[in-house]
Amino acid sequence: MQTSIRLSPTYKSSDSLILVIDEKSGLPTSLLSKEEADFVRQELKAERNNVIINQYRRIIAVHQLSKKKTGAALLEASRKTGDTLLSAFNRAKKESVVIVDVAGHGPAVLALAEGMALGNYQFLKYRTKSKETNSVLNIRVQSTEIRKKDIDQLNILIESVCKARTFVNEPQSYLTATIFANELAKMGRKAGIRVEVLRKPRIKALKMGGLLAVNQGSQQPPTFTVMEYKPRNAKNKKPIVLVGKGVVYDTGGLSLKPTANSMDYMKCDMAGGAAVGCAIYAIAKAKLPVHVVALIPATDNRPGEDAYTPGDVVTMMSGHTVEVLNTDAEGRMILADALHYAKKYKPQLVMDFATLTGAAAAAIGTYGIVCMGTAEEKVKAEIRQAGENVYERLAEFPFWEEYDDLIKSDIADMKNIGGPAAGAITAGKFLARYTDYPWMHFDIAGPAWQAAPSSYRGKNGTGIGVRMLFEYFKNI
After folding, report:
1. For position 76, what pLDDT does the model report?
2. Which residue among 78, 237, 348, 397 is the one 20 to 30 A from 456 at the CA level?
3. Predicted confidence band of residue 132 (pLDDT cuts 50, 70, 90)
4. 70 φ, ψ (degrees, to nearest 5)
5. CA 452 to mean position of chain CA atoms
6. CATH of domain 4-144
7. What is the average pLDDT across 100-120?
8. Residue 259: is its pLDDT beyond 80?
9. Where do the domains of the chain lie?
């Protein structure tokens, strides 16, 4: 069950509280005994900025905002604090918590609530004996600096991130390409999004050679989901198109991934599709005045049936020919067809999200998103700022023309891998061949999946990309 957040003008003497203070506001001593207040001051003086007092009937936590951090860094620290404090309330089996904005710092208080709500996410669908459900169901916020609209948008965003996490956490034994498309359609229509799911006959008619080639090794058919949100008051005359990789499970195909551990979490290879599907859901539910389209090609990648092989030449939807030298470089094959399909919208901008390369993860780890592309510097700056605001930070890689030489093929228009060097960039260069519009590529291979708990991002699927996209569209 999703944790809900709402504004609360008052709180009762029995309510558990988080008091958010700074050095100027000081400590509201009326809520604490003299001994408790003295203890809190002592802890704060020692720069231990989170202090928990158990009053038995309730818990009072005191959080002092960092004086060393400002802007995005302060908000991120507040989110992490929310996740840290959450555990104390769940251990005490508290169902409700009130965050009291003593400092008068609305953004930090909202971020703290966000960290609590996201940190409270659980995926318990397949637990049969002990579900160990977190107790915190309601977070109330008392602040004169926060509007109801802010709370409403935050609840929508948290719901959308949690939906993306659940998509990624679902095993492929349930989440086939067909089920993924059906779930996206059901979710989208609830938010007022027009959804069309292209099935295999239509995909064949459109000659989506990349998607069909990857699907050849599977007994499950591919899908191509089109989601469009076009409100009457849209600010953009041309749509912004989001493209997400939807490989619901990736064995590597005949270029089988080596074990151990390299295949264990490959159900997450559709995290890009989950990100763009849940981002457009959030945009529509919040009724943001923007025209947005999401395209999600989906299949699994297996070595069975009539699997495509290294050495094959595939003709893509665009008419380009591709020499396949590694069937594990499958994400770019299905994205290429989607990027070509996007041309029909004459888009203002296209952004694709994909768990595309191990090279991106190796370069910057789980700490950010690798990006590159042809969008104007102003647009790049706006996206970068959105990522910074929500701490889904971007590392832009060079996109020099020399990298094009690395994907030249002896027998086709291009090959689908570029060799051992600059793997994330050559994957981007491959995708660029299918664009004729302003475009940005986001490789989320590093942060899409956390093998160990990572604060409010949790463990396993993180829902990376949803918050950054929502922030970007909200700002424009």
Report:
1. 98
2. 397
3. confident
4. -135, 170
5. 17
6. 3.40.220.10
7. 98
8. no
9. 4-144, 157-475
Q: What is the tens place of the pLDDT at every residue in 434-473?
A: 999 999 999 999 999 999 999 999 999 999 999 999 999 9
Q: Please name the residues in contact with 198: beta carbons below 8 A apart, sequence gap of 6 or more.
A: 206, 223, 224, 225, 226
Instruction: Give per-residue pLDDT as tens, 76-92.
Output: 999 999 999 999 999 99
Asked if 265 and 215 touch (Cβ cutoff 8 Å), the reply is no
User: What is the model's pLDDT at position 275?
Assistant: 99
Q: What angle do CA 368, 467, 232 make, to 5 degrees?
A: 140
CA neighbor of 82 nearest in space, from 388, 394, 458: 458
Tell me what pLDDT residue 374 has. Answer: 98
65 neighbors 22 (Cβ within 8 angstroms): yes
Q: What burial class does residue 332 get, using C-beta atoms within 10 Å of its C-beta: 0-12 exposed, 13-18 middle, 19+ buried? A: buried
**8 A C-beta contact, residue 294 and residue 281:** no
The neighbour count for residue 133, using CB atoms within 10 Å, is 11
Given a contact cutoff of 8 angstroms between Cβ atoms, the answer to whether 330 and 425 are in contact is: no
Q: CA 430, CA 418: separation in Å to the nearest integer? A: 9
The DSSP output letter for 405 is G
Selection from 341, 342, 343, 371 nearest residue 356 by Cα: 371
Catalytic positions, written as ranges: 257, 332
Burial class from Cβ neighbours inside 10 Å (0-12, 13-18, 19+) for residue 412 reads middle
What lies within 8 Å, CB to CB, of 458 at 6+ separation is 118, 119, 121, 165, 450
Its CATH class, for the domain covering 157-475, is: alpha beta
